[in-house]
Specification:
This protein has 16 helices and three strands. It is mainly alpha-helical.
Length: 451
């Protein structure tokens, strides 16, 4: 027999009136979040947005690469040429090793010439020793929170265009300089204590790697430039500031406790009376559920920070455990933890992003060593990566996914250096992975030179 809707809502309301008493006692028995806050402060870590802002030391304007880089980004003026590759209206970049289609070279050259001053500003900015983007962390997430980091990404796009165009027009020195500058843009984001900034840094480093693949496919770089790129890829790979980013995430989670909560149990059902939704918000705060939600978020962020501090070969196993916790939040249990269910899944992506980036950066270091070998051996490829040790590599880089040496295969043309990828299987350097496809098998992390 189907109950009338009125009786259903009365039953729900009655249950909500009884639950606060039991939940309050349960909340107090479960261990207060204040203990975690105290442990962070004892370790010298920030716990509020104001403390986070003070923890991230200011940088004098004369030394700050970030602010100067933003000025360079603001000075860029697009010509709007529809033949400009890699833009919304323009054609896509050609596949690795293929020449640019008619009109692209001229369009890119015109764009770069029109913005020569902006590029000069960017290169000058990257010579500054320190960096902090002008984000007021005390203000939390506002409309300017992400804008500055996206502008840095735009500078990366411009430098990628310059490197690709230079390689296409036979200027290897300029191409290499632009790739090095791309890595420099990513470096300006290293100290930002924010997961979003960390992801943008990874995106820019990824663009540098793709650009380097293109440059090596279209031109041959001199030994000095290859050595500099090899060292720059090694420096980018050595940086792991995930723990710092998670410290910032904890501060944003703690800030949520002090904010009035609205729409906690609003799942978009128009049939739910507004009065019941308002009651749900009050119930969430008064019953202790809000503190429990925060405590769970902090506990999971602590697990991610601990995983980030472990050897990289152990990160993936830690991430799988974390995903198991996230999956439980997607069941009915997650109803009691609305904020954890909303924010933690994004944080879980940080570990595989770190591993993928490190793997390809190590592949790139090996590729630079191979290119140096080719210069010394009339263009011939080495049979094994081991022959590059110790003259061109101190050791064959370790695959951060399985702890084994990176793989290498000659191709026609060129070669591929690769990691087994997240599935842990050697797929022969296959590059079939499509971002966002959801597939986790049948492809590797690769750096390919098609020349």
């Amino acid at each position: 027999m189907k109950l009338p809707r009125t009786k259903i809502w009365l039953a729900i309301a009655g249950l909500l009136l009884v639950l606060p008493i039991g939940l309050t006692g349960w909340s107090r028995r479960s261990g207060p979040w204040e203990q975690r806050i105290a442990s962070y402060r004892a370790a010298g870590l920030p716990t509020t947005l104001a403390e986070l802002d003070a923890w991230y030391a200011p940088v004098p304007d004369a030394e700050n690469a970030a602010t100067a880089l933003l000025e360079a980004a603001s000075a860029w003026r697009s010509t709007g040429n529809t033949n400009l590759p890699g833009t919304v209206k323009g054609p896509s970049y050609p596949k690795r090793g293929e020449p640019w289609i008619s009109g692209m070279v001229a369009a890119a050259g015109e764009e770069l010439a029109s913005n020569a001053a902006s590029l000069t500003q960017a290169y000058a900015a990257l010579r500054r020793p320190r960096s902090r983007y002008p984000v007021d962390l005390k203000a939390g997430i506002d409309k300017n929170f992400m804008t500055h980091f996206m502008m840095a990404r735009e500078v990366g796009h411009h430098l990628s265009l310059e490197a690709r165009w230079a390689a296409e027009t036979g200027d290897p020195e300029r191409a290499a300089s632009a790739v090095l500058a791309l890595l420099g843009v990513a470096r300006t984001l290293e100290d930002e204590p924010l997961i979003f900034a960390y992801m943008i840094r990874g995106n820019i480093n990824g663009e540098a790697l793709q650009t380097a693949e293109r440059v090596l496919a279209r031109t041959s770089l001199p030994e000095a430039r290859l050595r500099r790129l090899q060292a720059a890829f090694a420096a980018a790979e050595a940086t792991n500031h995930l723990g710092r980013a998670f410290a910032g995430e904890r501060c944003f989670a703690c800030d949520a406790l002090s904010q009035p909560i609205t729409g906690v149990f609003d799942w978009g059902d128009d049939r739910v009376p507004p009065a019941l939704l308002r009651f749900g918000d009050r119930f969430y705060a008064a019953s202790g559920l809000q503190r429990q939600d925060l405590t769970l978020t902090l506990r999971r962020l602590d697990e991610l920070a601990e995983a980030a501090a472990r050897p990289r070969t152990e990160m993936l196993a830690q991430r799988r455990q974390f995903i198991a916790h996230i999956d439980r939040l997607r069941t009915w249990r997650g109803v009691l933890y609305p904020q954890s269910r909303q924010f933690l899944p994004m944080d879980a992506n940080a570990l595989p992003t770190e591993l993928r980036l490190v793997a390809i950066l190590r592949c790139a270091q090996a590729a630079m060593a191979i290119e140096r070998w080719r210069l010394a051996h009339a263009g011939a490829l080495p049979g094994l990566l081991e022959v590059l040790v110790p003259e061109y590599l101190p050791a064959v880089p370790e695959d951060p996914l399985d702890g084994q040496p990176l793989r290498y295969r000659a191709r026609s043309p060129g070669y591929v250096v690769y990691s087994v990828g997240e599935d842990g299987l050697d797929d022969g350097g296959r590059e079939a992975y499509v971002p966002g496809s959801g597939r986790t098998r049948g492809w590797d992390y690769t750096f390919t030179v098609a020349r």
